[in-house]
Amino acid sequence: TIIQSYVRGWITRRMNWKYKLSSVLIQRYCRGWLARKKFYILKEATMCIQSAIRKFNSMMSFHRYKHAATEVQRFVRGQIARSRLEGASYLYLRGDSRRSQDSFGMTKLLHSVIKLQRWWRFLHSQNVRRKSAVLIQSHVRGIFARRRTSVERRYIAMIQSHWRGYLTRKASKAQVLDLRMRMQTSAANIDDKKRLINKLLSALSELLSMKKVHNILHICETLDSATKYSDKCCEELVAAGAIDKLLTLIRSASRSIPDQEVSKHALSTLRHLARYPQMADELIDTKGSIQTIFWELLRNKEEAYFIASDVLKKICNSQKGLEAVRKLPALVKRLQALVEELTRKANFEKRNVKGQSGKEKSERRLKEAIELLKRITSR
To answer: How many C-beta atoms surround the C-beta of residue 337 within 10 A?
Structure first.
């Protein structure tokens, strides 16, 4: 039994060794076959690439040789043709009787060539001129057509707008009449105390007696809006003494933000009043008005500065206002000093890259001050 087991083990190990040797042999042959196949593929690819490169080089060489041969042939043919022409002209000048027929033929050929060239140049120039004339005519016709179309379109749009307006007015005629009657009825029955101008006059009379800043600011904003759009309100307010009260309010304003808002709206109201010549004269005749506006110009740097500048410009539009401003040389000198200071500041900010917003504001203030100074000193 022990011998049999040993024999069986030996037989099994031998069979395993044979199987292992066979598998290794098969793997080796497979790897060799794959390597040879890959090598043959690479070899064929290399040969194809080499053949393509050789073909390309051969074609390039052939084209170079062909081009060189063509150039040589062209040069030789040209030289032969020139020699023939020169020989014909030389024989023609010598009057050689032996070559007279050849010379006559060459001369005739030369004249024929020249005549053909002249005819071809003439034909080509005629075609070019004709095409140019047609192109210019088409452009001119296009310009005239577009202009005529634009005029017609404008006329059509105008006619359509008039017709639509007529239809709209016709459709809303009854509504407009009804609205007009209602407005007339309401205007006839309204209480005088509720009218805008009466409310403004009432608020103006209580302006200096108010203690709360937000009430004063509300009244100044209302006066600013009313005088901006209504000349009737401007006349009534000036007749009620609004200029004195507004100037007093501006003088009493402090440097706080609410007071500066009040001062800004008061100056804006004066600007609206100064649009009209009669009211501008009233503003000029008011005692201390120009000094007050000048001081607001000199001490403010925000929006009130530009409003005060506008008021002074409107005052300087008349000869009376200009003379009144020139009677205050100290303030004019202060304005010149302000222009010099703003000029130095603008030059400094030009060299400084930072602070673009402040730079724009300084340039705007300088522009306003220079323009105002020119108005005062130019006339």
So the answer is: 11
Alpha-carbon span 191 to 177, nearest angstrom: 23
Q: In this predicted model, which residue has the larger pLDDT, 102 or 58?
A: 58
d(CA 328, CA 315): 14
- Return the structure tokens found at 125: 């120039």
Token pair 């000869």: residue: 319
Terminal Cα distance for the chain, rounded: 145
DSSP-derived 3-state class of residue 1: coil
Instruction: Write the DSSP assignment of 99-120 as a string of letters.
Output: THHHHHHHHHHHHHHHHHHHHH
Least confident residue range of 35-44, 78-87, 140-149, 191-200: 191-200
Question: CA gyration radius for the chain?
Answer: 53
Q: What is the pTM of this model?
A: 0.49
Give the CA distances from residue 112 to residues 116, 354, 361, in Å, rounded to whole numbers and listed in that order: 6, 82, 84
- pLDDT tens readout for residues 208-220: 777 788 888 888 8
Higher-pLDDT residue of 217 and 152 is 152
- Provide the 10 A C-beta neighbour count for residue 269: 27
Nearest to 199, CA basis, from 157, 230, 156: 230
